[in-house]
Fold this protein.
Amino acid sequence: MSVFDTKNLTPRILSSFTALILSAVNALFSLVFQPQWYVPLIVFFITFIIAYALYYYTLQRFIYRKIKLIYKFIYQTKATKKEEFFYNTILPQKSIAEVSEDVQKWATQKRREIDILRENEQFRKEFLMNLAHELRTPIFTVQGYVDTLLAGAIDDPEVNRKFLSNASKGIERLVRLVDDLGEISKLESGKTAIVKENFVIQELIGDVYEELSLRATEKNVTLGFKKGTEGALQVYADKPKIKQVLVNLVENGIKYSKESGTITSGCYVMDDRHIYVEISDDGPGIAEEHLPRIFERFYRADRSRSRTIGGTGLGLAIVKHIVEAHGQTVNVRSKPGVGSSFGFTLERGKE
């Protein structure tokens, strides 16, 4: 394999090869004018030494010095003693091809970081826009009723209580929104402690069903367990937090369920360490293009219908954060016209 077939062309090798060519050319020319054998040999060695010194000095002093500056720029730090040793000892032994590869890797990493920053900026803009919209709706509702009351409706006994009641509902929605924002902020910052304990997951689901039974009855929705999954399964998790997950999922199922619909839960043993919990409904379902973003804050697959039904738009985001705070995963399966199934894993408890 020739020198040019390798990727390890150091300044020493490049200088030696160039000096060798020049020395050979000069020696041949001197042989034409001085046929004595020793003259070309002397010319060869003198030319080699001078050319090697000049080329090696030029490469080290100018070209590789620029490369060192590039490395310093890439790592964006002032050189420490260890780094100076790296620049002076290790780096000059790198080939131009290796340096080029390092620079390309750095450029790729920077492009990736820029893409992430752009995505985060877009997410931030969407979040602020959605937050403003979510706040504006109840605020305008309350303002409308209050202004109407101040304009004289407060003296009408037939409407004043109704308007005050509707204004109170708007305030309650604002309070829920602020509470959910506070909850999700704590979860994202890691300030919410996860206190685990052993409990039977089916019993907790039964408590949630009982708590939401009135809302389910209003829509004639049936709450139940899938056949074969009623057997008690112990999980090791934060019971109040998992209850919040179940409440959010069952509430969503009730909100979007059709009249006389059904919501079922299933609990399955995945392996020796994990239990899988799934809440399913036979509602309208979610289109496939919305599934990757369904757990984002304020993301709504059907914005007009979601706001008519109500909710803060943070329920599924809170579900995701609570489950992930347990070191577990959450997923969704859905098909329009068939229904949706939200599932998450939990650590298996001790029997």
Summary: The two ends are 67 Å apart (CA to CA). The CA atoms of residues 270 and 276 lie 6 Å apart.
